[in-house]
Structure formats: C-alpha cells, structure tokens
Amino acid sequence: MKRRKLLALTLAMTSMLTFTMTGCGKSSEVSSNDKSEKNGKTEVNIFQFKVEVAKELENAANEYMKEKPDVKINIETVGGGEDYGAALKAKFKSGKEPTIFNVGGPQDVEDWKGKLEDLTNEPWVGKVLPGMLDGVTMDGKVYGLPFSVEGYGLIYNKRIFQAAGIDGSKIDSYAKLEEAVKTIDSKIKSGALKKDFPKLEAVFEFPAKEKWVTGLHTSNAALGQEFKSSIDSYKSKTVDFKYSEGYKKLIDLQANYSPNGKSKEKLNAVDYSTQVDQGIAIERVAIVQQGNWIYGGVKAIDEKVANNLDILPMSIQGGKEDCIPVGIPMHWAINKNQSDKSKAAAKDFLNWLYTSDKGKDFVVNKFFFIPALKGYENYKPQDSLGKAIQRYIEAGKTTPWVFMGYPTAWGENVLGANIQKYLSGKMTWDELVKDSKAQWESKRK
Amino acid sequence: MNKDSRKWFIIFVAPALFAFIVVVLIPVIMGIIYSFTSWNGIEDKANWIGLSNYIEIIKDDKTFFSSFLFTAKFAIVSVITINVMGFVLALLVTRGLKISNGLRGIFFLPNLIGGLILGFIWQFIFTKGFDFIGAALGIDFLRGWLADPTTGFWGLVILMSWQMSGYMMVIYISGLQNIPDDIIEAAKIDGASDGQILRRIIIPLVSPAFTIGIFLTLSNSFKLYDQNLSLTAGGPYNSTEMIAMNIYNSAFKYNEFGIAQAKAVIFLIIIAAITLTQMYYSKKREVEM
C-alpha cells in the first residue's frame, strides 16, 4: 500500500515540477524583462557563429558600452566546426533566448519566422547595396542585416603563374582557363617549376570530402546562372541543370589535375585542411576553389603566399565565364520575443556597428569584412582576396549565391554525395543530374 | 523492524526514482509523443499527425534502412573483434609476466581518450600515415583510406576495436581471476593440455563476463556516434552514416524532429529486442560453479 502511495507522490511531484518548468518557459517574456533590467542596465545577449571575429566583436561591444553605459552586451559564440543551427535551437529551447542571433537564407527565415523582429524601418536598410537583402526579405519585410559580402572562385598563386609564364588576370573564359591549367601541368611534370617550388605537385587540390565545396559552391557557379536569386531558387519546384555540361567540366578539370587525378575516388578523403593549409598555403598546388575566408588561415602559415593570392572566375562554359559567385553568408537578426528596451538597444548596437565611423573601422579593419552597405568609400578591404572580390563587384562580374535557397540539405547530402559517387565511378554524370533533379522535386512537392 | 526497513527503503529509493523519472522516463514519453507530430524543432506548437512519420520511414526512407544495415554489419564485426581481442589481452596479462601491470595500463589507455579526439587521431593515421607508408613502399592498398565505403567501414572497426578492447580486457581479467587455481591445477594433473583447459574450463567459467562484454559492445556499437562523426562524418556519399548520425541529421540538418523521434523510437525498440535476446541466451549458457 505504502509503496503505491510513494509512487503516486513521486509522480505527482514530478508532474508538478514539469508544469512549473513549462510555466517558466511560457512566461519567458516576463522573466527576461526582469533580467534585462538587472542593475538598471539593459542587457543584450548575442548568440553568433563567426568564430574568427569573436574577439574583435567583444572589443567592438566594449567600445559601444563606453558610449552607452546603460547597456550591457553579452556575446556567446558557437561556430567553426560546430553546428550553429543545432546549438541555436538548443539555446532557444533552454529558455534563455538570445536578443541577437544569426540567420542564413530564405529557409532559415521561414523556419524562424515566429521569432524574427521586422527590421524594415531600420536606418541601415536604405544603405544596403542592391540585391543584398533578397535572402532575408519576405512579404516585403526585411528580417536581417547582412554580415558581410563573401565571394569565392578559383584562388591561385600569382607567383606560380608568373613562373609558368601565364598572366592570370587575362583568364576570362573556360578555354583560357583550361589552357593555363594544361601549361602549368606540363611544366610541373617536366620539372621546370621544381627549383622555385619544390613542393608543387599538381595544379589543383579538390576536396570532395567537403560536400559544401562541391555540392554548394561549385554547383552554385552553374545554378547561379539558372536562378536569379536565392529567393528564386527557394521558390522553384524544379531544377533544370541548364549548364550541366559546364558544371561537369569545372569538376572534371579540378579532379583530373589534382594529385589524385588518376584515382579520383581518393579525392573523397581530401578535406579542407589538405586543400588549404597543406595545399595552397605551402605551395603544393597552384589553384584551389575557395573563398576570401581562407586569407587569415593562409596568412598564419605563410604571409608571402597569402599576399600573392588572387581569384580566377568560376568559368561555366556556355554560360557566364568571367564571373564569381558573391553573396551574404549570414545575417544578424533580432528576437521578437524580448523586451522592447532590449530590442531597441540591440537595434541601436547593430546600427552603430555598421554605420558609425568607429563601427565601420571594426567591420572592415578588424573583422576583415567586405561590407554590403554603402558609405564605406574610405574603408577598403586590405587583404589580397578581399581586394580581388571588391574588383569583381565593382566590375559587375558577379553571380548571386543561390545555394541558400536549395531545399534543406539537398546541396550537401544529395548533390555533394552524388559527386562523391561520380568521382568513385559509381554514378555517371547523367545519372547524377537525373537523381539530383528528382530529389529536388520530391523535397519541394 | 519491518516498518523500519520500509522507511529506509523509501529514503534510499526515492531520490534515485525521482531522478530516473525526471531525466529518463519523462523525456522518453515526451519523445514518443513528439514522434506522432510534424514538429520541426523550432516552432512552439507541434501538429499531431498520427502514424504518418512511421509510415514514411518504413515506406520511403531508404537512407534509414541502409544506415541500419551498415550499423548492424558494423556491430556484428566489432563485437567479435573487440571481445576476441579483449579476451586475448586478458589472457596475456594474467600469465604472471613481470610487465603485466604496465601492459594493463597501456591496453586500457585508449579507453581514456575521448571518442571525438580518437576519431581525429585515426583519421590522421588513415589518411596521412597510411598514405605516406603506402607511397614510400609502393603499396597501393594503403592509399586513399576512408575514401570508399569499404575502407571507411574497416577504419571504424579498427578504431573501435583499438579503443574498446582494453575496457573489455578489464572485465575479462576479473572473470579470469575468479577462477580458482585448484581447478586448473587439478586439470593439469589429470593431463589436460593448455588448449583443453582453455576450452573446457576457462571459457565456460568466464561466460558471465562474456555476457556483460557482449552486451556492452553490442549496445555501444549500435549507439556509436562521436567516433563515426569525427572519423568519416558519414562519408563518402553517406555510405558510412550510422543510425545515430542518421537520426541526428534528420533532426538538425533536415529540421524534421518528428521523423527523427519516430526513428529514435524504432531504434530503441530494435536495440532493446536485440540486447535482451542476447542477454537471455548468454545467461542460459552461463555455468554455475
């Protein structure tokens, strides 16, 4: 008898506890209100993913707090190798919802819509460069402030090109690219470059293990000409692979002239650090398909190499051959369910960071961002790759990032995985296109 | 007296029971409830959709089935290698060699390193170390490990055997040391060979240890996640994606929490069925002294 009573008691206690806990979750608005005005200060909690700028962001926040002593900014960073999306979900579920967090493209906006504050009337909205808000605009409302502009292409080592007698800046078509690659390849094989570049062993390094490189970035070079923006790809029920041949050639070229060109299935074990840290940075290869984010890493290994990097276009034969894909990797967003005071402070901080002189200095010179806003005439990127991206933007030779609008995980787990099968000979190119098309449609039905 | 013991029973059991209910029972029940919804992991509300998640998994989801097969294959192979290695190591260090204690420490050491780090260490060995040796000696077999499903599979098996066999060794040592010396001495006097002693006396007498060892390795191999993540991350082309990773990916990459929960429920039932059957049969085989 007693035992049964005990069980009932424990059950009652636990259910009570659960109810109180859910109760806490429900009343988070009230409690965060109380919390945000602790010690008379308005608290702004930032949960962001860019590990590279975590420290400088802290400094920027301190600078801001000097100007606004009644605001307290707390920064938490989860990113790098870690899964920001999963961490963010856990953070929200824990009840300690951040004030400022990051969202990627249209899919993120759709998923998080219930939490996003409408930022349409913020002062910086009018200053954003054309097209750069596409990914976070939904039903005419703006939900995010672009972090920065990033771009990628075929990053090459200018010194190796010079030694091989090639002027990289003249390459603006697939034919010229292929010719240059063949020239360098023959010079590597004949040993003509051995003296100056003893480690050089191939033209490309192609990290097929990193499915984001092949499935998102390389594919975007082709699909970025098929779709007009990430919203366009997000809304599309089908994908045509209009430039499938050009896409195939770009992949084949990189795979065939890599150190594993003769046994391409081995490329499936080549990762980012083999490509960048143990590849282009030590002059083991001449070209890698990567973006301006690698600058810091290469610089840490060999500054001379880093300063001699430049970018070749992602030539898609039959489409645009002289462009690189440029886009916004992430956006700052504000949590709708916070106290008005805290939201106002968060908005003011973001505005300060991207439009005041001090903030601009941080954005360009400390974070090494290429801003997506006007009014940065006096703040130009200083690093070789940032300059190269700026050059492409100014010349108008860019294609949009549409991979943000691919169906969830399609780019990596379908297309990227199919490319691995293609490289190991388990799938022909036609099968790859057919399967990827079918899976796009089934995810969008 | 009786009343007293009941009071003590309550005092001792209540805290543990409370903890068990809060951290195990309630989450399991909530998880089962979520498996009947189309929750995406972000929204506050979850729509009830009945059994459709289960139907979709069984009917359409080929990846779940293939990762299940891969996991089962891995579990069978690694249970054998881990337990055989663990048992052999245990025999080795109970022979009374002078360096026995040192060896025990060395064999147990890999178990103290976290799974994620181990994965990265072995990834380096397989992709860089093997490749270097293969290139130097001209053995093509050693090159390009982890780049195809077969080497990915054996890579995982090697990693897990290396890590877990030390732990199993400890269990088997305690089993071996519980065998009274007089039985073995008697067998020797009766003229039994070493092989006969091993087969007829030692193995039957340590079978309780085998029950535990096989149970632990079986359930660990099925639930494996971190070594899988850091060694191959499911690649190439998701061919080495084990079931735990498959579930995690549905939840956090595809934002399909409902489906992930349903998969987890199916997974729970299957593991429970397999391990309980194993326990039942192993228990039956155990010999009482």
Automatic annotation (TrEMBL), chain A:
Residues 1-20 form the signal peptide. SUPFAM superfamilies: Periplasmic binding protein-like II. Keywords: Signal. The keyword Iron does not apply. This is Multiple sugar-binding protein. It comes from Clostridium liquoris. The gene is msmE_2.
TrEMBL record, chain B:
Keywords: Cell membrane, Membrane, Transmembrane, Transmembrane helix, Transport. One of its GO terms (biological process) is transmembrane transport. Residues 68-278 form the ABC transmembrane type-1 domain. The keyword Transmembrane helix applies. Pfam families: BPD_transp_1. It is a multi-pass membrane protein. One of its GO terms (cellular component) is plasma membrane. The chain crosses the membrane at residues 9-34, 74-94, 106-125, 153-176, 197-218, 259-281. It is found in: Cell membrane. Its main location: membrane. Belongs to the binding-protein-dependent transport system permease family. This is Lactose transport system permease protein LacF. The lineage of its organism: Bacteria, Bacillati, Bacillota, Clostridia, Eubacteriales.
